[in-house]
Design brief:
The chain has 5 helices and no strands. By secondary structure, the chain is an all-alpha fold. The protein has one domain. Helix 1 packs antiparallel against helix 2, helix 1 runs antiparallel to helix 5 and helix 4 packs antiparallel against helix 5. The structure holds protoporphyrin IX containing FE. Protoporphyrin IX containing FE binds next to helix 1, helix 2 and helix 5.
C-alpha cells in the first residue's frame, strides 16, 4: 500500500520537475546565451534527466510490479500504448539535444568558445517535448480510468 502510494507520488513529482525543466531549458536556449544563461540551460537539462530517471524507474515498477493493475491490463490498453509511443518519440527527439549539450559542457569546461547555432532548434525541440508531455498526461489519466 505504502509502496503503491510512494511510486504514484514520485511518478507525479517527476511530471512537476520534468515539465518545468524542459520548458525552462527551452526558454534559456532562446536567451542571449551568455555564460550565466548557459549555466541555466545545463541546470534545467540536469533536472530534465532526473525527471526522466524518476519516470522510467517508477513507471516500469508500476507497469511490471502488479501494484495497481496487472501488467496485461496496460499492455492491451490503447491509451497506455499511445503513451509509450509518445514517450519513445520524446526520447528520439532528445538524442540531438543530449549529444549537443554534452559537447557544450565539455567545451565550456575547457574554457573554449561555443558555436551556439543549434540553440534555437534545441529550444524548439524542448517546447515540442513539453507538448508531448501534456498529451501523455491525457493518455495516462485515461488509461488509469479504464478508457482505451
Ligand atoms: C517508461 C515510462 C513510463 C511508464 C512505464 C509509465 C507507466 C505508468 C503506470 C503503470 C501508471 C499507473 C496507472 C494506474 O494507475 O493504473 C502511470 C501513471 C501515470 N503516468 Fe506514467 N509511465 C511512464 C512515463 C510517464 C511520463 C513521461 C509521464 C508524463 C506525462 C507520465 C504520466 C503519468 C501520469 C500523469 C499518471 C497518473 C494517471 C492517473 O492516475 O490519473 N508517465 N504511468
Amino acid at each position: 500500500m505504502t509502496l503503491r502510494w510512494a511510486l504514484a507520488a514520485l511518478h507525479l513529482i517527476a511530471l512537476g520537475i520534468g515539465l518545468g525543466a524542459v520548458w525552462a531549458r527551452g526558454r534559456s536556449l532562446r536567451s542571449q546565451l551568455q555564460a550565466e544563461d548557459l549555466r541555466r540551460v545545463f541546470r534545467s537539462d540536469a533536472l530534465w534527466g532526473v525527471a526522466a530517471a524518476l519516470w522510467v524507474g517508477t513507471g516500469l515498477w508500476r507497469l511490471l510490479g502488479g501494484l495497481e493493475k496487472p501488467t496485461g491490463y496496460y499492455l492491451q490498453n490503447h491509451m497506455f500504448l499511445t503513451k509509450m509511443g509518445l514517450f519513445v518519440l520524446l526520447l528520439v527527439l532528445e538524442v540531438s539535444p543530449l549529444v549537443t549539450l554534452m559537447r557544450w559542457r565539455r567545451i565550456m569546461a575547457a574554457g573554449q568558445s561555443l558555436d551556439t547555432g543549434p540553440a534555437r532548434r534545441m529550444a524548439n525541440i524542448s517546447f515540442i517535448q513539453a507538448g508531448i508531455l501534456i498529451l501523455m498526461v491525457f493518455t495516462a489519466a485515461a488509461m488509469a480510468r479504464g478508457i482505451g
